Amino acid sequence: MGKVYLTGAGPGDVELLTLKALRVLRQADVVVYDRLVNPEILEELKAGCECVYVGKEDKHHTLPQEQINMLLYEKALVHDVVVRLKGGDSVVFGRGAEEALFLASKGIVFEFIPGVTSAIAVPEMANIPITHRGTAVSFRVVTGYEAPQKGYAQLDWASFRQDETIVFLMGLHQLGHICTQLISIGKPKTYPVAVISRGTLPDEQVLVGTLEDIYEKAKDLPTPALIIVGKVVELKAQLERMA
Ligand code: SAH
After folding, report:
1. 112: which strand partners?
2. Are residues 131 and 108 in the same domain?
3. Ligand 1 near 93 CB (within 6 A)
4. For a pocket test of ligand 1, which of 14, 36, 124, 142 has the largest count of ligand atoms closer than 8 A to its C-beta?
């Protein structure tokens, strides 16, 4: 019986892959990967390695999660090294723990290999540091996708602090709603926001605005995209002016 490595591929730029991830990828007999994984990474695989794409488009799941779980289980029964490769880090809104629980329940050995999460690296590579002394005392990474009808938890908007950075993943389609909610809890309309589309990739786009105008500026950007809200966004212009 083999082992399944639940591995983060980083946000896009292949150089953000960890050495540990690269090592298991080079040893892999099978790689099961998602839409957010940069396919250039697959060039590192050994000859004969089987690649299975289980990509998920927004709201459209190519393979349902239960089938991905079963696929990993079945591959681990017949191969030594199975790599489950996901964008960013597998446990940051990546369902990595669901796959681990399933595998463990079937007696399959697994290991998490952390990846560089888009939540931190994408703003950082666009010169927006997620914390900065005196500007943001904490940060929160939240899902912008609220679906109470599916039983997902709703965001507790009132709990957002004034001096924290908020990163919304999966939120581009909710951008208007997010801005309206943040204004309704007392953030000024001029509060800084950035939207980063296809971060760390050659076609990256970064749009900076305010809670009032970012929706019109950024609503049609290509995905994946994340939203970062907070005073740290203002550091971008400052850093780039000095550079
Ligand atoms: N596990 C991933 C996040 C999965 S949720 C991680 O740790 O990065 C998917 C969301 O991540 C997307 O909707 C988008 O908000 C964000 N995302 C992932 N890669 C991105 C990129 N290169 N640029 C901008 N946002 C990205």
Report:
1. 6
2. no
3. yes
4. 36
Q: For residue 226, how far is its CA from the centre of ligand 1 (angstroms)?
A: 7
Average pLDDT over residues 49-55: 94
Q: Does residue 63 sit in the same domain as residue 138?
A: no
The answer to whether the CB of 117 is under 6 A from ligand 1 is yes
The alpha carbon of 1 and the centre of ligand 1 are apart by a number of angstroms equal to: 32
CB 33, CB 42: distance < 8 Å: yes
Pair 104, 138 in one domain:
no
Q: Are residues 59 and 90 in the same domain?
A: yes
pLDDT (tens digit per residue) in 73-83 = 999 999 999 99
Asked whether residue 38 falls in the same domain as residue 59, the answer is yes
Q: Answer whether 13 contacts ligand 1 (Cβ < 6 A).
A: no
- Using the mean position of ligand 1's atoms as its centre, give its distance from the Cα of residue 88 in Å: 7
Instruction: Please state the pTM of the whole predicted model.
Output: 0.95
Same-domain status, 103 and 154: no
> Which position has the higher pLDDT, 135 or 162?
135
Clarify whether residues 143 and 50 are in a common domain.
Answer: no
CATH number at residue 141: 3.30.950.10
What is the tens place of the pLDDT at every residue in 156-200?
A: 888 888 889 999 999 999 999 999 999 999 999 999 999 999 999
Residue 212 is part of which domain span?
Answer: 118-242
